[in-house]
Amino acid sequence: MSLVAHLTELRSRIAKALFFLLLATAVSFWWYEHGLGDFIRAPYCDLPVDLRFTQGSEQECGLLITDVLGGVFIRLKVAFLAGAVLSSPFWLYQLWAFITPGLKRNEKRYGVAFVAVSSSLFALGAALAYLSLSAGLELLLGLAGSGVVVALTAQDYIGFALSLLIAFGVSFEVPLIAVALNLVGVLSYAVLRQSRRWIFFLTIVFAAFVTPTQDPFTMLAMAGPMIVLFELAIQVARFVDRRRAKRDALEHFHGLSDDAASPLDAQPSPLEDTVDSSRSATRG
């Protein structure tokens, strides 16, 4: 394909991806009043009564809006992020359909596995963040002490909750990068094994800076699973390097430099010998 044809196809793929994103955002905008908003507010509403704003009775909880357009922007933000998640299979397919003609068979296989694993890790991180959100809020808001009325605005709470979900989801992708670098031969198992202690230490430091709550509970909730995922990535690198070493040993070419030619016999075998050997094998 020419450059113009590539650009035309890219424009078509982007247009289709945006269409599915806008459609899913519209559905999420309607869904906000039919369960999505309650789902986001649930960690806040599960807090003790003295740590949240109540409306009329203790069973009801609410968030404050301090400006006219605050509710619109909050609903649009939640609807857009939810729409991006709901439409991810469609826009990921458009991206995959654009790049897959230029990939080899093994690269396509690795690409499908990478997208599936990365999506699963992001969902796992976001789910863990949602489960730990209520405990983190209770710890942080409880530090205010008695005699303090806690009334969070909708902008602050929902922005905080969404940033926590995204931070956990993206953080769970980091160990996958180590596996990808090992698969392409950039990062070896030996390096990962020697750097294991530093990796675990930097993971804790990374979690301390990335978590919006800055409390030890949420930090450990992020750092613990990341350490487990990094250890799993190290073991995957160990398996890949062992398999690569066995394959290189069978090929007998591992001692050659990249510029040296492989010691292959370029002389064709005689046609008559090949025919005779195949006939004798058939008769036998």
What does this structure look like?
This protein has helices at residues 3-31, 36-45, 70-86, 88-99, 105-142, 154-171, 174-183, 189-194, 196-210, 216-251, 271-283, and strands spanning 54-55, 57-61. With 284 residues, the protein is mainly alpha-helical. The chain has a two-stranded antiparallel ribbon. A hairpin with a 1-residue loop joins strand 1 and strand 2 (57-61). The radius of gyration is 28 Å and the shape is flat. The two termini are 52 Å apart.
Tally of contiguous helical segments: 11
Helix content: over 70%
One letter per element, helices H and strands E, the order comes to HHEEHHHHHHHHH
Strand content: under 5%
Low-confidence spans? none
Oligomer: single chain
Question: Summed up, what is this model?
Answer:
With 284 residues, the protein is mainly α. Helices cover 72% and strands 2% of the residues.
List keywords for this structure.
284 residues, 11 helices, 2 strands, two-stranded antiparallel ribbon, mainly alpha
